């Protein structure tokens, strides 16, 4: 396990991730131990204190809050270390692994089968080194060898098309295919460097029946106008396809990397438990020690909740929320994956609950019901709701122009995914 420490441009060895005889939920259990050299380095920080505090000993993810051969320090934030779910691999390390799309790429590369299931260690070791956050995985503890070579946007698009069809990747596109192995999500995407800046390139799919790429651009651009913290985005064309370029927020202008943990990791849950979580749970975590500028963070998260209701982004599961970790405290990353979700009926519900009781109907009345969890008065919550609605109405045409939507595409989104009448209903 290698890590880029805050402000550093080169990685150092953090520790060892090793397979154990144990199995959890059908997956081999991977234990972690920090290297002595890392523990002795005065600049070192924990990879995530609630899971992997910077202490001696081996940490088994199936036994949260315990360490063999050492002492597990208390965590004052929410949830406590004892309330975290048993896992086959520490969640902060799993955050650096590829998700559905990246695994499909690796499956094709190693087994010529897009649907095969390989081990977590295989995915960690064969995904690109320019992955999300500040971690990487190597077979050597003495020599760091980055995985990944430059590729053009056209090459990335062509590689994604082949991968989506489950076809073999030719040698001249192998490097381009590798750019899709180190980031999350299920849709075709890849990493791109352009003019000294790093982007996530998101591609349209052959199965798309709606302008998905442009719709996400609209969601992100509306969020920016509302005042939500979002990365820069732009729509471009390559090889006859729409591509959304999203500036990476986990990289700095000084070529350093920022540690990132998912909302799933923050709440100490397994993937399957995400459905039973809520924005209220995230707000509760922010209200506890361990977060900087909690009041501003709560205001930001509530505004994101409201915006997601208004634009119909109901795929807001816990891997679509994240926080920066600097070794001491957490703060929300810029918002991402704000994509209006298709719907066949008026009704819609979110991937996680909006309220502490688990209400998930995509309606503004439910957002109002959640306001107290964010330490907002009914009046303050309504002001945020009014601001999001007014901004969406006022900025719609300009945002659509910037996202390059045609009139037909605008009409396809407005009143369906975006500003659907269901959000104003007073009952479910």
Short summary of the structure?
By secondary structure, this protein is of the alpha+beta class. The chain has helices at 36-40, 91-94, 100-111, 120-126, 153-165, 174-178, 212-226, 263-267, 279-287, 294-311, 364-370, 378-402, 407-413, and strands at residues 2-3, 12-13, 15-24, 27-34, 58-59, 135-136, 189-194, 197-203, 233-238, 241-247, 260-262, 322-325, 330-332.
What's the topology here?
Blueprint (H helix, E strand, L loop, with lengths): L1 E2 L8 E2 L1 E10 L2 E8 L1 H5 L17 E2 L31 H4 L5 H12 L8 H7 L8 E2 L16 H13 L8 H5 L10 E6 L2 E7 L8 H15 L6 E6 L2 E7 L12 E3 H5 L11 H9 L6 H18 L10 E4 L4 E3 L31 H7 L7 H25 L4 H7 L15
Helix pairs in contact: 7-10, 7-12, 9-10, 10-12
Task: Provide structural commentary.
With 428 residues, this protein is an alpha+beta fold. It is 31% helix and 14% strand. The strands form four sheets. Strands 7-8-10-9 form a four-stranded antiparallel β-sheet. The chain has a three-stranded antiparallel β-sheet with strand order 2-1-6, with no helix packed on it. Strands 3-4-5 form a three-stranded antiparallel β-sheet. It has 13 helices and 13 strands. It is globular and about 60 Å long. Strand 12 (322-325) and strand 13 form a beta hairpin. It has helices at 36-40, 91-94, 100-111, 120-126, 153-165, 174-178, 212-226, 263-267, 279-287, 294-311, 364-370, 378-402, 407-413, and strands at 2-3, 12-13, 15-24, 27-34, 58-59, 135-136, 189-194, 197-203, 233-238, 241-247, 260-262, 322-325, 330-332. Helix 7 (212-226) packs across helix 10 (294-311).
């Amino acid at each position: 396990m290698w890590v880029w420490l805050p402000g550093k441009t080169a990685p150092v060895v953090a520790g060892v991730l090793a397979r154990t005889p144990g199995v959890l939920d059908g997956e081999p259990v991977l234990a972690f131990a920090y290297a002595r050299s890392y523990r002795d380095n005065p600049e070192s920080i924990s990879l995530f204190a609630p899971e992997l505090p910077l202490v001696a000993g081996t940490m088994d993810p199936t036994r949260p809050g315990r360490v063999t051969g050492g002492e597990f320090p208390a965590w004052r934030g929410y949830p406590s270390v004892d309330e975290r779910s048993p896992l086959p691999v520490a969640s902060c390390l799993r955050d650096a692994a590829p998700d559905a799309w990246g695994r499909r790429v690796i499956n094709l590369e190693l087994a010529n089968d897009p649907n095969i299931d390989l081990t977590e260690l295989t995915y960690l070791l064969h995904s690109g080194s320019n992955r999300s956050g500040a971690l990487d995985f190597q077979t050597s503890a003495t020599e760091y060898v980055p995985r990944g070579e430059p590729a053009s946007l056209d090459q990335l698009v062509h590689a994604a098309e082949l991968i989506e069809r489950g076809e073999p990747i030719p040698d001249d596109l192998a490097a381009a295919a590798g750019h899709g192995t180190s980031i999350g999500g299920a849709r075709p995407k890849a990493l791109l460097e352009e003019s000294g800046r790093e982007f996530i390139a998101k591609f349209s799919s052959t199965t798309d029946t709606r302008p998905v790429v442009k719709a996400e651009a609209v969601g992100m651009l509306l969020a920016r106008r509302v005042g939500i913290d979002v990365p820069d985005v732009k729509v471009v064309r390559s090889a006859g396809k729409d591509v959304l370029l999203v500036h990476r927020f986990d990289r700095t202008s000084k070529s350093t990397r920022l540690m990132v943990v998912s909302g799933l990791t923050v709440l100490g849950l397994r993937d399957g438990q995400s459905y039973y979580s809520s924005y209220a749970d995230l707000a509760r975590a922010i209200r506890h020690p361990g977060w900087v500028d909690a009041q501003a963070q709560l205001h930001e998260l509530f505004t994101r909740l409201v915006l997601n209701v208004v634009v119909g982004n109901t795929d807001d599961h816990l891997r679509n929320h994240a926080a920066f970790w600097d070794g001491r405290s957490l703060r929300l990353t810029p918002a991402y994956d704000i994509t209006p979700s298709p719907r066949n009926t008026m009704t819609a519900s979110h991937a996680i609950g909006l309220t502490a009781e688990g209400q998930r109907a995509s309606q503004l009345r439910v957002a109002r019901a959640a306001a107290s969890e964010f330490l907002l008065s009914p009046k303050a919550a309504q002001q945020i709701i009014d601001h999001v609605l007014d901004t969406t109405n006022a900025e719609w045409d300009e945002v659509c122009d910037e996202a390059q939507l045609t009139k037909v595409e605008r009409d396809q989104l407005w009143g369906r995914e975006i500003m659907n009448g269901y959000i104003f209903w007073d009952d479910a």
